[in-house]
C-alpha cells in the first residue's frame, strides 16, 4: 500500500524482503529507461522497518519518520537502508555497502546506514 507525498511517495510492505525487492526493481526500471531516454530521471529510496502507528489506513510514528530521514541520505539512483532492514534480509541475495553511522534529525542516536548494490 502507499500514499503520495508531493513529489514522492511512501509505500509499506508486510516484509522487508518485499520492500527491498521493489526498490531494486524500481531502480533497475529507471536505469533501463534512462539508457534509452534523452534526459535521465533518477529516483532515491530509503527503507526502514519497525512498528508504526496505524490510523485511518495511514502510517505514523518514529519508524516512518526515520524512513523519511534515511531517504534523505540517498542520492538519485541510490537505495539506502537502516541496519534493521539489512539484518532482516540477511542471506536473501542482497548486497550492501556500509555507509557508516549518520545522525537523523529528531533522533538521539545515530543510525547505521547501508547502501544497496543493485546494479548487476
Task: Please tell me about this protein's structure.
With 120 residues, this protein is α+β, with helices and mostly antiparallel strands. It contains three helices and eight strands. 31% of the residues lie in helices and 30% in strands. It has a four-stranded mixed β-sheet. It is globular, with a radius of gyration of 14 Å.
What is the rounded Rg? 14 Å
* Overall mean pLDDT: 91
Structural class: alpha+beta
As an assembly, this protein is single chain
How many DSSP H or I helices?
3
Strand order of the biggest β-sheet: 3-6-8-7
State the end-to-end distance: 28 Å
Series of H and E elements = EEHEEEHEHEE
Unreliable stretches: none
The strand count comes to 8
Please indicate the percent range of residues in DSSP E strands (runs of 2 or more).
Answer: 25-35%
Report the biggest beta sheet as strand number plus sense, adding barrel if it closes.
4 strands, mixed
Fraction of residues in H or I helices: 25-40%
Shape: globular
Short structural summary:
With 120 residues, the chain is of the alpha+beta class. Helices cover 31% and strands 30% of the residues.
Provide keyphrases for this structure.
120 residues, 4-stranded mixed beta sheet, two-stranded antiparallel sheet, 8 strands, 31% helix
